[in-house]
Design goal:
The chain has 213 residues and is α+β, with helices and mostly antiparallel strands. The protein is 54% helix and 7% strand. 33% of the residues are buried.
């Protein structure tokens, strides 16, 4: 009986009733981000739950879009004055968003307009790949983490942190020439003077041979 623009929150609440909830963040595993695992387990990170919700909404012709909010991916009905939590559908107004930032990053983190921007499909896949890179790494699957790190770079618009993340993986895997490649790219991208000095020093410590990996 409701118009499509008012069905997003009921849909998210219904999904929560079916058991789609945020996974345990104390011991995160890659299955919290792998979408097919999220569907099977009905547990996952906010981004995974949001991507599944977006696909269901698309099929039901319910207007809904992703919001690349720091630390906790959110959803929004286009034109609405609030955001929606992908984990249950709670409405979040600007004050709620500021509180969410403070809880995750501390009082020095301030709400900015770019935090509320709509996420493109590419941005969502890249963020998902960054999450998987981290989850595979902390669970000691370095080769899987390396694949995720490479995907992040191949998608485009990679930042200094993305190159440094893959460089660290290459360092652990003892691939100095591949590590050098990423450190040099990170050096080109950074504007931080202190970071430039540290990267230059790190590059000087690497062997200069042309070993293949």
């Amino acid at each position: 009986m409701l118009p499509p623009a008012e069905l997003a929150q009921p849909m998210l609440r219904q999904m929560a009733t079916f058991g789609f909830q945020q996974d345990d963040v104390a011991h995160p595993k890659p299955q919290s981000a792998l979408l097919h695992k999220v569907v099977q387990r009905r547990r996952g990170q906010p981004l995974g739950l949001a991507m599944i919700s977006l696909e269901i909404a698309r099929r039901l012709q319910i207007p809904l879009e992703g919001v690349n909010f720091p630390g906790h991916f959110l959803l929004r009905v286009p034109g609405a004055d609030h955001l929606l939590d992908s984990c249950g559908g709670r409405r979040l107004y600007p004050k709620d968003c500021r509180d969410l930032l403070v809880r995750q990053f501390g009082p020095d983190m301030h709400l900015q307009i770019e935090h509320m921007r709509t996420a493109s499909a590419r941005a969502m896949v890249q963020r998902l790949s960054r999450n998987l890179r981290h989850l595979h790494q902390i669970n000691d699957d370095l080769l899987a983490s390396l694949k995720d790190a490479t995907r992040v770079l191949e998608i485009g618009d990679a930042n200094t942190s993305d190159y440094l993340a893959r460089a660290s993986l290459y360092q652990t895997l003892e691939c100095p020439q591949a590590e050098r490649f990423d450190l040099e790219h990170a050096l080109l991208l950074t504007d931080d003077v202190v970071q430039k000095v540290r990267l230059t020093q790190r590059l000087q410590l690497l062997p200069s041979g042309k070993a293949l990996h």
